[in-house]
Design a protein that fits this description.
Outer membrane lipoprotein wza fold like; wza like fold; 339 residues; alpha+beta; 5-stranded mixed β-sheet
């Protein structure tokens, strides 16, 4: 099939090669909801399930919408028997091949290819101790810190680690990523563990690239309970390297009546219903005379209260007794009414 092109039409085609023709009937390229952003979308590499819109200028019968098949090819374009490779290629690469294929039937065909649906990548899922658990569609390479920002950041319940489970192999590996492109054994799902403190401090190894289909779990902290003679007895959430002195500070510190030399930690023995009691001298820790104690999840810390006649409480006890004696004495005096 040969088509004669007039001088005017040739001029229009040359202009269209500079500015891509806009067909009102052509659907706009989709912008996935819940995506991190569209930065770098021009370098998006196609994969099975993606849908493209193909327009051949001046040949409406050849316009078509095609999906990349499971083999990574486009095989449903009109009049083309040979599939067009699409997997791990950009829309510009595919556009050139389609134009070359139609060049066997047309003279200088002008072809436009746009991606209308990006469905080849599974969304990454973020949940756990984040402010906005969500699923994020990624059209480019995204790192962990961007995922954390997109999920609203960490909550106060975040513990010290982030777990990243890889459920899909890398579809279009770059040099050095060959191992990540290997099929994933269902019994051995790859798992990365990142320390939140390392991520905050900017360590490169703590900010890995997140793959499509990843599950990012910000582990929630387990509680530690603080009771006794403290300002605000309550439970606090475990943090990485949480020590006894830091936990006491988190509840406002000890009261002035506290017996800081007698602090007890009740801890469940592993695999047993019994508890062990750890006696700690908090005053010695504050004086750097004893090492601080690392706490474990579900520890119960009890700060004892000094006795009424201890050196710490004796002045207040005596003052209370004297004031109480005067009050009782004046209460016992008879009341006389003067007329």
């Amino acid at each position: 099939m040969k088509i004669k092109i007039s001088l005017l039409l040739a001029l229009l085609i040359s202009v269209s090669s500079i500015a891509r023709p806009q067909d009102p009937s052509a659907p706009p390229a989709s912008s996935p909801s819940g995506s991190v952003d569209n930065q770098g979308v021009k370098n998006y590499l196609l994969g099975p399930g993606d849908v493209i819109d193909v327009r051949v200028f001046g040949q409406p019968d050849l316009n078509a919408t095609a999906e990349v098949d499971s083999d990574g090819n486009i095989s449903s374009l009109p009049f083309l028997e040979k599939p067009i490779p699409a997997k791990c290629r950009t829309e510009k690469d595919v556009q050139k091949d389609i134009a070359a294929a139609y060049g066997k039937y047309l003279k200088g065909p002008q072809v436009s290819v746009r991606i209308t649906e990006r469905k080849s990548r599974q969304p990454a899922t973020v949940f756990g101790a984040v402010r906005q658990p969500t699923r994020l569609v990624m059209v480019r390479k995204v790192r962990l810190n961007e995922i954390m920002a997109a999920s609203g950041g960490l909550t106060e319940r975040a513990s010290g680690t982030i777990q990243i489970l890889h459920t899909e192999p890398v579809m279009c590996p770059e040099p050095g990523e060959e191992a990540a492109a290997a099929p994933i054994d269902g019994t051995k799902v790859p798992l990365e563990i990142v320390k939140i403190q390392d991520l905050k401090s900017g360590k490169a190894e703590a900010n890995p690239i997140i793959r499509p289909g990843d599950y990012i779990v910000v582990t929630e902290a387990e509680p530690v309970y603080i009771t006794g003679s403290v300002v605000s007895p309550q439970g606090v959430y475990m943090r990485d390297q949480l020590t006894l002195s830091l936990a006491i500070a988190m509840v406002g510190g000890v009261r002035k009546e506290a017996k800081t030399s007698d602090v007890r930690i009740y801890r469940q023995k592993p695999g047993s219903k019994e508890q062990e009691t750890i006696k700690v001298d908090l005053s010695a820790i504050k004086k750097n005379q004893a090492p601080d104690i690392l706490l474990q999840a579900y520890d119960v810390i009890e700060v004892a209260e000094a006795g009424m006649f201890s050196a710490k409480r004796l002045p207040s006890t005596l003052l209370s007794g004297v004031s109480g004696g005067f009050q009782s004495m004046f209460t016992a005096l008879p009341t006389r009414v003067m007329y």
